[in-house]
Amino acid sequence: MKKAELLREALVASNTWCKANPEQFTVWVEKGHIEIMATGESSFMYIYPIQVLAMDFPGQVDDLMLPLLAWVWENQPDLLLNPEENQRIEFDADIISDDSADILLKVPVWERVIVTAGENGKPMAQHLAEDKPRLGGGDWQVVFDPESGEMQP
After folding, report:
1. Mind listing the pLDDT tens digit for each residue in 15-35?
2. pLDDT the model gives residue 113
3. pLDDT at residue number 129
4. What is the pLDDT of residues 124-150, one digit of tens each?
5. 58 to each of 42, 86, 89, 104, how far by Cα in Å?
6. Residues 6+ apart with CB under 8 A from 70
7. What are phi and psi of 133, to 5 degrees?
8. Which of 101, 120, 118, 109 is nearest to 68 (CA)?
9. Residue 110, Ramachandran bin (φ over 0: left; ψ between -120 and 50: alpha; else beta)
10. CA-based diameter of the chain, in Å?
11. 7, 92, 89: which is closest to 55 by C-alpha?
């Protein structure tokens, strides 16, 4: 499950608080499952929610949500382009004080995996990147740079 690691890396890279407070920032997966693909090839999908918890976070929820949405654009763009799907990106906030909150983000993801036989005959898994939208991403493509996944100035 590579997307959980990638999301953690993206949030740490884009938010100085996450980088400076690793003991208060955690990413985990809970209750995932697999789905075997009926495509004629040996493939399956991991389907799971990524959960991100920032404890005693002193910033605004936007400070986490904007880098999260940039990551979603690169790694799970269908969540932004489908109104029924984007409602599945969830958050909870427990207000600790006037200056901080515990913030929990939940993002449903899936990873496509192709299984092939390696040189020694042992099965090997190859995780595939998500397809980019064929018709363009509209406003999201204007906001997020598709090359870097970062906000445009």
Report:
1. 999 999 989 999 999 999 999
2. 92
3. 85
4. 999 988 877 655 556 666 666 555 445
5. 46, 26, 22, 14
6. 10, 14, 144, 149, 150, 151
7. -55, 135
8. 109
9. beta
10. 59
11. 92
Every domain of the chain and the residues it spans = 2-137
Residue 93 to residues 49, 52, 65, 83, 103, Cα–Cα distance (Å): 18, 12, 12, 23, 5
CA-wise closest residue to 66 among 48, 83, 80, 56: 80
What sign does the dihedral 132-134-139-143 (CA atoms) show? Answer: positive
Of 39 and 88, the structure prediction assigns the larger pLDDT to: 88
The residues with which 47 forms a beta bridge, in sequence order, are: 33, 110
Residue 69 CB partners (closer than 8 Å, separation 6+) = 80, 144
Q: Which of 129, 76, 84, 138 lies closest to 107, judged by CA?
A: 76
Please tell me the distance from the alpha carbon of residue 113 to that of residue 127, in angstroms, as a whole number.
Answer: 5
